[in-house]
């Protein structure tokens, strides 16, 4: 999701595990030590070092020890930590993972802190999945989402003004003009289901819906079918494979090699394009995914992270102080500038105004959403019948019948967890 974020190693003094012997209480000088789990590549070592130093200077009674965690297998590791008596005090988690951890009862309910944290301005795509059963457990940390990365030279050659593309109809018209003479109007692989989700949301549909305590797949609704119809129309304006996603092959590498006018990607994808073809420097631009009307950009899936506090933490006050500082306006602006992320509040979008990719991302983030907020959704992504559905439709199968099959598969996965 966050392509282009460089892997960086922490400075030596900033790593320790949740079970460190110093983490159980105050040190000899009376300072409280909190243990924090942050995820690999979420922020640079330099930003983290700057924040920890600034935090400890401002809060002289709190020491911070950070351990970097790997995304692979993090769900099981956090679940085990929450069930133990030795949990860290603050954990960074993917925004769509919060419901899974909250269901276990292992997270601290922070609902009474929302006002203090300025929650009224949070990005919905981070805040809503951070809540579970009406209670707020996850505090929005940062966001990233997809935009359109385009070749400025190919647009100019085709006589297309990217700034004038404000609606999906205009996008299709422009892409048709670009899709000529050996140039692909857009490289859109057939299984980019996050992009499909945005088109479905634009139509008023959803991937799954809830009735009482029951969730069921909803790709067979008329609205969701219209979203798939638009995806099919757009995907045909290029040579993207119908049976794979953006990682197979890596779409940024495809754009670097050939005459591809557009891809849908996080802005960091541009760095990958340039790494593979430096001759394209100065020839890449960004614009938000267009919406159905010019009044609102297209819906996008919001990726990113929330911060949670385990219920088992014995230092919840200090942990909350850490969360409040890192998610507060001052450090959010610094984080946005350092990492080209979207800040956690709509009121901070100006923090990335000078960054073309991040500013395009912030426009979409304002109307961004997350996947269905249920612990059962993890099982859907594990098998991902949405990808199979998309490939079936793009290779000629009947959209409505395939949508019904996919909806049944989604329902079964959310119900049985497999």
What can you tell me about this protein's structure?
- This protein is α+β, with helices and mostly antiparallel strands.
- It contains 16 helices and twelve strands.
- The chain has helices spanning 45-58, 74-82, 98-103, 124-127, 152-158, 168-178, 193-202, 222-235, 251-257, 269-276, 316-326, 329-339, 356-365, 377-383, 385-394, 399-416; strands at 32-39, 62-69, 90-94, 131-132, 135-136, 139-144, 147-151, 208-211, 214-217, 262-265, 284-287, 303-308.
- The strands form four sheets. A five-stranded mixed sheet has the order 2-1-3-12-6. A three-stranded antiparallel sheet has the order 10-7-11.
- Helix 9 (251-257) crosses helix 10 (269-276) and helix 15 packs antiparallel against helix 16.
- The protein is globular and about 70 Å long.
The rounded Rg comes to 22 Å
Shape summary? globular
How many DSSP E strands? 12
Structural class: alpha+beta
- Overall mean pLDDT stands at 92
Stretches where pLDDT is under 50 for at least 5 consecutive residues are 1-24
The rounded distance between the terminal residues' Cα atoms is 24 Å
Could you estimate the helical fraction of the residues in percent?
25-40%
Sequence-ordered SSE layout with sheet pairings:
Elements: E1 32-39, H1 45-58, E2 62-69, H2 74-82, E3 90-94, H3 98-103, H4 124-127, E4 131-132, E5 135-136, E6 139-144, E7 147-151, H5 152-158, H6 168-178, H7 193-202, E8 208-211, E9 214-217, H8 222-235, H9 251-257, E10 262-265, H10 269-276, E11 284-287, E12 303-308, H11 316-326, H12 329-339, H13 356-365, H14 377-383, H15 385-394, H16 399-416
Parallel strand pairs: 1-2, 1-3
Antiparallel strand pairs: 3-12, 4-5, 6-12, 7-10, 7-11, 8-9
Helix pairs in contact: 7-8, 9-10, 14-16, 15-16
């Amino acid at each position: 999701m966050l392509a282009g974020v460089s892997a960086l190693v922490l400075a030596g003094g900033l790593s320790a595990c949740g079970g460190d012997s110093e983490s159980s209480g105050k040190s000899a000088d009376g300072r409280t030590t909190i243990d924090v789990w942050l995820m690999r590549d979420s922020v640079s070592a330099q930003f983290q070092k700057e924040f920890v130093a600034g935090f400890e200077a401002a809060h002289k009674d709190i020491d911070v020890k950070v351990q970097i965690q790997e995304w692979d297998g993090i769900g099981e590791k956090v679940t085990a930590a929450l069930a133990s008596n030795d949990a860290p005090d603050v954990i960074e988690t993917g925004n769509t993972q919060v419901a899974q951890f909250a269901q276990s009862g292992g997270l601290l309910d922070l609902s009474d802190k929302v006002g203090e944290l300025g929650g009224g301005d949070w990005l919905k795509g981070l805040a809503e999945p951070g809540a579970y059963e009406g209670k707020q457990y996850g505090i929005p940390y940062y966001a990233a989402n997809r935009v359109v990365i385009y070749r400025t030279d190919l647009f100019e050659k085709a006589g297309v003004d990217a700034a004038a593309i404000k609606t999906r109809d205009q996008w299709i018209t422009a892409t048709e003009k670009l899709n000529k003479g050996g140039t692909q109007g857009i490289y859109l692989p057939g299984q980019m289901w996050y992009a499909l989700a945005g088109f479905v949301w634009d139509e008023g549909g959803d991937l799954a819906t809830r009735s009482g305590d029951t969730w069921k797949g909803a790709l067979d609704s008329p609205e969701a079918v219209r979203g798939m119809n638009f995806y099919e129309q757009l995907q045909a304006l290029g040579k993207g494979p119908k049976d794979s996603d953006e990682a197979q092959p890596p779409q940024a590498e495809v754009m670097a090699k050939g005459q591809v006018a557009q891809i849908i990607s996080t802005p960091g994808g541009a760095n990958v394009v340039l790494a593979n073809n430096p001759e394209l420097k100065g020839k890449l631009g960004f614009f938000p995914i267009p919406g159905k009307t010019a009044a609102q950009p297209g819906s996008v899936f919001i990726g990113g992270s929330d911060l949670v506090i385990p219920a088992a933490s014995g230092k919840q006050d200090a942990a909350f102080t850490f969360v409040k500082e890192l998610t507060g306006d001052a450090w959010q602006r610094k984080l946005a500038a350092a990492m080209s992320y979207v800040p956690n509040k709509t009121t901070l979008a100006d923090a990335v105004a000078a960054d073309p990719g991040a500013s395009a991302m912030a426009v979409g983030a304002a109307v961004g959403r997350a996947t269905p907020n249920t612990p059962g959704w993890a099982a859907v992504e594990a098998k991902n019948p949405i990808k199979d559905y998309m490939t079936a439709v793009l290779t000629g199968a009947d959209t409505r019948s395939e949508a019904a099959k996919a909806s049944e598969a989604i329902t079964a996965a959310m119900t049985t967890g497999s």
